[in-house]
Amino acid sequence: MTAKAATGRTRTGALVRAAAGVSALALTGQLTLVAAIPVLTRLYSPEDFGIFTIYLSIVNILGAIAGLRFSTSLYVVEDKAQALVALKLTLVAICATTSIVLAAGYLLSPVIPERLQHLAYLVPVGMAGIGVADAMNCWCLRFNHMRDFGMGRLILPASMALLQVGFGLARLGDDAMVQAHILSQAVLIAFLCGRLLKPDDIRRIMQTSWASIAAMARREYKFPLFELPSALAGFAIINLPAIFIGSLFGTAFAGHFGVAARLVTGPVTLIALPLSNVFVAEASKGLDRQHLLGTAFGLLVVATGLIALPVLGVGFVSPYVVVPLLGPSWMPTGQIMAALAIMCAAQSLSTPIQEVPTLFRRQELRLLVDLVRALFVFAPLLIGAHLGHDPLQVIFVMAAGGATGYALGIAVALHLLNGPGGAQRSATGINRRV
């Protein structure tokens, strides 16, 4: 009994250290990004931010589905040999989907507004970068390369902030912010590939037969069947509002929304998401549900203190501090931040345990939750705009709906963790039995 207790304390201590290390690196990267905002708002106009926000929203949605969600199958593969097959399958899917998007952009370019036409060719590049980076992040988590994963969370935002400032000072044009984003993705991918893949791994990936890839695709069909629409719904909730706001209220208002989202949702993406990744890594070690339930509650407490409460505080003071920091033309940004803080606080609590349905192979349940949350977000936005309500009022109601949807996700994840089967000892075993 004493040995078991010691082992539990050791495991918990290692978990806390891993979560703290990843979150600290992510926080450093986020602070770099936030520190650059006052400079960027003086180098770029709200319209420039609006164009970048629309681009980023599109590539975030498409990048999340670029690999047809086969990247998440890395969480449940049995060994490195299967992981290499899954990685090649993901890369093949990224090439195929990127080619389709490139062709669609070429065909649709005549009907795209002139100022946005160049995005038709930049979006596929950004989409592919996000897809490859996501696959390498999944590899980090499956094989417990937590330090490399954490360094990636620092490198991406820091390099993007520095490149955007540098390109702005050099006055490289309207799409300078987009170019900086693409280059920062390239920096991240180069770092992760250099750290994670040995020459022998690359050789084995290239030699993987098409028959093995096809067999892997058939075996893991649930990931594109259920994870794909679920991811599409989840990322749409986060990114489509900016596109709709730009189309309904103008690119300048989309720029205000984009800056507000960067300041408020950044901590959720870069701090809460690593907590989710730590949970996945812990589940992959073959632990029982009771331990995972305790881990989930521990991460919820961490997320509350580290993210949710500070985000609500930032939302409360933002209308009073934005103008001194960013300038008089950015007043709407502070009001939007106050609205988004409500939804982001709930999202920060949902994110650490968002992969629970996937770990239990209940992708259809995750899809249902994401679709309901999407309804709660987009219905107020579209109905409010149609009725001619004030944009800020519409955004506040949208944020409240999103918070309700994330609360539903928390309830579902805890229900699965608290379900029958507490004696099961491995993540793979749980996946097979549930």
TrEMBL record:
<dbReference type="InterPro" id="IPR050833">
    <property type="entry name" value="Poly_Biosynth_Transport"/>
</dbReference>
<feature type="transmembrane region" description="Helical">
    <location>
        <begin position="120"/>
        <end position="142"/>
    </location>
</feature>
<feature type="transmembrane region" description="Helical">
    <location>
        <begin position="228"/>
        <end position="253"/>
    </location>
</feature>
<feature type="transmembrane region" description="Helical">
    <location>
        <begin position="329"/>
        <end position="346"/>
    </location>
</feature>
<dbReference type="GO" id="GO:0005886">
    <property type="term" value="C:plasma membrane"/>
</dbReference>
<feature type="transmembrane region" description="Helical">
    <location>
        <begin position="89"/>
        <end position="108"/>
    </location>
</feature>
<comment type="similarity">
    <text>Belongs to the polysaccharide synthase family.</text>
</comment>
<keyword id="KW-0812">Transmembrane</keyword>
<keyword id="KW-1133">Transmembrane helix</keyword>
<dbReference type="Pfam" id="PF13440">
    <property type="entry name" value="Polysacc_synt_3"/>
</dbReference>
<feature type="transmembrane region" description="Helical">
    <location>
        <begin position="154"/>
        <end position="172"/>
    </location>
</feature>
<feature type="transmembrane region" description="Helical">
    <location>
        <begin position="367"/>
        <end position="388"/>
    </location>
</feature>
<keyword id="KW-0472">Membrane</keyword>
<feature type="transmembrane region" description="Helical">
    <location>
        <begin position="52"/>
        <end position="77"/>
    </location>
</feature>
<feature type="transmembrane region" description="Helical">
    <location>
        <begin position="292"/>
        <end position="317"/>
    </location>
</feature>
<feature type="transmembrane region" description="Helical">
    <location>
        <begin position="259"/>
        <end position="280"/>
    </location>
</feature>
<protein>
    <submittedName>
        <fullName>Oligosaccharide flippase family protein</fullName>
    </submittedName>
</protein>
<keyword id="KW-1003">Cell membrane</keyword>
<feature type="transmembrane region" description="Helical">
    <location>
        <begin position="178"/>
        <end position="197"/>
    </location>
</feature>
<feature type="transmembrane region" description="Helical">
    <location>
        <begin position="394"/>
        <end position="417"/>
    </location>
</feature>
